[in-house]
């Protein structure tokens, strides 16, 4: 079975393991191929998203990465603002092209990384570009990373249930006449520090400025009489941190992650997360996680969308602008193929397989949610 | 200050065996995090700090 999966992955990627099977010592390229399956479920939305990823690394420090994901949304969604209770399938294609180069010969190595991302679905197109420089100091005990990204989205409409006409109370235009844009610039800075031989700390700050159409073209309030209308810009600030501690005696890693967020729509959030990684054997690892998320509502959010007036400047029916919280638990199993060393092809001996399941108890209109993922990574 | 207080400048590369364990490297989970982050962007009001850009779906 594993051989079949390996063959399928290699054929899909159009590469052969023997064509690039060395490393920096012999001066040839190395890399890996990954196949992933992603699944999301809540009471109104189901998403199935297969993904394929290929990475290549040159011995001189250059690398390229291609990631292709297909989102298949298989039922109506509150987030998409379905006007009728009809099932539909909407497909989103997401292509991510990235490359980088690490200048290894420097005393303090520098890595320059960047790329492009394209996403297309019937009513939405998104393009993003990213540049991310990193520098390591003190024999790589200290790392500073910056990131700047720009995103441009083009937003359209497709009415489900066969109608291509925007309802009269939302303008009455045909779906293909609705065109809006949304842009965003994001800058981030991070610092990672080795504190002791078993302790690492990471802290960072992330700022995003969005401008343009920030509402959802399908959602409405006052019984469908007024389309959603949000402010046309948003300033978002986020602090994040991670403390990771390895306990050699039990081969356990404990991690605490924390995010705090605030924006000018008066949404503020905190998000602590705890993870335990346990090495059960050299070939098998489990990860348990608990995550808590809580946020305040936006300044223009009303819990009853019929409480708005026609002269209110901003109206929303977006559940993620409400006051809510999430409790989430997750488990992951990771299997390393090293136990096949000497028994199977060396690509299988270097492979890893993971499977995870996360359940989210969510208190807003989206309801409880499931995120499940599986992946197979094969080096070549 | 944290660095100085912990004496982290003295942690040499050969002392970082445990830090190279797969469980200590979040970058190893970056591909898994991409879809998960996309879910969070579509279902939570806060965004960012998880290493990937959101967007790309009509989930505003």
Q: Could you tell me the mean pLDDT of chain B?
A: 74
For the biggest β-sheet of chain A, the strand order reads 1-2-3-4-5-6-7-8-9-12-13-14-15-16-17-18
Percent of residues in β-strands of chain A: over 45%
Number of domains of chain B: 1
In the CATH hierarchy, what is the superfamily of chain A?
monomeric porin ompg
Helical stretch tally of chain A: 2
Mean pLDDT of chain A: 86
> Within the CATH hierarchy, at the fold level, what is the topology of chain A?
Porin
The major beta sheet of chain B can be summarized as: none
Q: How much of the polypeptide of chain B forms β-strand, as a percent range?
A: under 5%
**Percentage of residues assigned to helices of chain B:** 25-40%
Structural commentary:
- Chain A has 2 helices and 18 strands.
- Chain A has 380 residues and is mainly β.
- Chain A has one domain (2-218, 232-299, 318-379): Porin (Beta Barrel).
- In chain A, the strands form 2 sheets. Chain A has a 16-stranded antiparallel beta barrel with strand order 1-2-3-4-5-6-7-8-9-12-13-14-15-16-17-18. Chain A has a two-stranded antiparallel sheet with strand order 10-11.
- The two termini of chain A are 18 Å apart.
- By secondary structure, chain B is mainly α.
- Chain B has one domain (2-43).
- Helix content of chain B is 32%, strand content 0%.
- Chain B contains 2 helices and no strands.
- The longest helix of chain B has 14 residues, at 30-43.
- The radius of gyration of chain B is 17 Å and the shape is elongated.
- The model of chain B has no long low-confidence stretch (mean pLDDT 74).
- Classes of the chains: A mainly beta (380), B mainly alpha (60).
- Chains A and B meet through strand 1, strand 2, strand 3, strand 5 and strand 6 of A and helix 1 and helix 2 of B.
Task: Name a few traits of the molecule.
heterodimer, A: 380 residues, mainly beta, two-stranded antiparallel ribbon, globular, B: 60 residues
